[in-house]
């Protein structure tokens, strides 16, 4: 559905060239929710502008639904953009228009006839749960309701791709969960492909099937959610399944293991630790559903001299353990 090949974007500045994207290769499968994460300055905003054709890449190609966006002339690019819906952090609704009129705006621009617009708007507002608020104005809506209007507006021209740029950053926790649930439900019902740009690992955990981490304009890690979180010690694994809090006290040596409970039942993981004796113990543990599987993380506390034995025993049980020097190192944030 979305294919980026050798994507590079360089901006000229008085102090020299600034490389925003540095050879991005990325594939987003049709019908998936794909998260793009990274710190500020990682290249997320430039990437989304290249996806919509608002920025021309310095080199490389951008293909969306079989169309090479990066090669289109401006008149054809405008038509191609209608196949991509955009949802923004700040919804930017037109305050002087009703909710229905806001949703209808892209249809007006596209030249859709009035009676067809009205039918489509009613359908979309019902779809996002605001069928009874068509005559309201933006000032009368909550933040979550405004974002629902933004989603309905983005879907007006029946796009195949929905790009969501920090869609929940301005919302509280419960509203965020509702909006992410709506996005996933719309993906399931409409079969659209969704790309979510975010700096929040919790958003990726709640809604995404696949995830890509950008750093300094490059892809550092990418893959299915269950794949990346079980890659013990990797940046996305640490960010998406945070290291559990460790109890107070002196630490000896720590061994970290991440595993899918489909492959290794929790009882097997704990039994492997118990078999090592009383001087080896589970210091902390967590299990949570991610990407359709339950993912566990263990932090095992052991005498320094027994670390190789602990690693080997956990590996024999089907886990992928990694020795870490300190609790602080185990808890680094990366996104």
From TrEMBL:
A Pfam family reported for this protein in Swiss-Prot or TrEMBL: ABC_tran
KW Membrane (keyword) present: yes
Domain of life from the UniProt record: Bacteria
Any one GO molecular-function label of the UniProt entry: ATP binding
Membrane-traversing stretches: none
Signal peptide (from-to): none
UniProt cross-references to InterPro entries, sorted A to Z: AAA+_ATPase (IPR003593), ABC_transporter-like_ATP-bd (IPR003439), ABC_transporter-like_CS (IPR017871), MetN_ABC (IPR041701), MetN_ABC_transporter-like (IPR050086), P-loop_NTPase (IPR027417)
CDD domains to which the protein is assigned, alphabetical: ABC_MetN_methionine_transporter (cd03258)
Record keywords, A-Z: Amino-acid transport, ATP-binding, Cell membrane, Membrane, Nucleotide-binding, Translocase, Transport
The ABC transporter domain, residue ranges: 2-241
Protein name, as recorded: D-methionine transport system ATP-binding protein
